[in-house]
Amino acid sequence: MKDRISVLMDGELGEREAADTIATLANDPQARDAWRTYHLIGDAMREGRSIVAPRRPAANAPRWRVALPAMAVAAAVALVSWVAFAPQQQNPAPAAEVAALKPPAIVPPPRAANDYLLAHQGFSPRVALQGMTAYVRTVSDPAEEPRR
Amino acid sequence: MSDREIDSQLVARAQQGDKQAFNLLVEKYQRKLTRLLSRFIRDQAEVEDVTQEAFIKAYRALPAFRGDSAFYTWLYRIGINTAKNYLMAMGRRAPTSTEVEAEDAEGFEEGEQLRDINTPESVLLSNEIAETVNSTIEQLPEELRRAIQMREIEGMSYEDIAQAMDCPIGTVRSRIFRAREAIAERLRPLLDTRKDKRW
Known about the structure:
The structure holds 2 protein chains of 2 kinds. Chain A is built from 7 helices and no strands. Chain A has helices at 2-9, 15-27, 29-47, 49-52, 63-85, 95-100, 111-119. In chain A, α1 packs across α3. Chains A and B meet through α1, α2, α3 and α4 of A and α1, α2, α7, α8 and α10 of B.
């Protein structure tokens, strides 16, 4: 009976046999179960045709042709991960290495540098100023100033 | 007997009061109609409700169906109108006539657009079911797998498959049946747990 349902669904059953099968379908729970399941299978296959029939590499294809794309993908993922996360990593250096580091030499700027910085402060980037700090103006009220 | 003739026979039986015959039509077309309606209604639960309502309307209107068009074409119109009414009642944008008429009901299933959306099919057929179908097909003997794929995916006739596989039509018939049964056997434990579904 299930065999005939399969053929009926495919439109390949003769008229007389089809009519008999349809009559049976309406009265036989097992036949209806087959009808339901076979249609489900067909829908699943058509809906997921790219999943159902994935392209497999030919059996005689060399292994490296299979592995190479996978390795390329893995390498790309690793690169992206490194670029994304490496600058944020702040692994504490081992104590021995820290101890071995010499403190940086502090070289005082020349006096003229202060004048230069003062004169050009208007052009300096304000990225260090957060929030509304950039808009704050310092004012003073003479009345509030301590008398000298 | 062609697909349309099978539907006509089921409709005729349903018109004579055979509810099981109508159920067979529901089981055949519910996923197709749900996919269609999901183009206009994104929420999965709403799509299922509207689909069910469309089938109820179709059942009530069945005595008036004269068979001038294919059953699915008729059902398609009912489904679209039900979706339109639902969206308008919800104060949402209903599909325009251009959007709807542009689709050929019979050829709708092949529309590439359907594959771009998050179809309710992926919900109705749970991942588990889809994976079971896929994995079983992969494990089928080559001749069974090719036969059922040519039939279900390519829509080829038994005669064409017989030519392609260089075997008698009877062998094609047997291979397709055996493939379906092999997949069905693996699906049954999953489907038995889903009997509480509305359809």
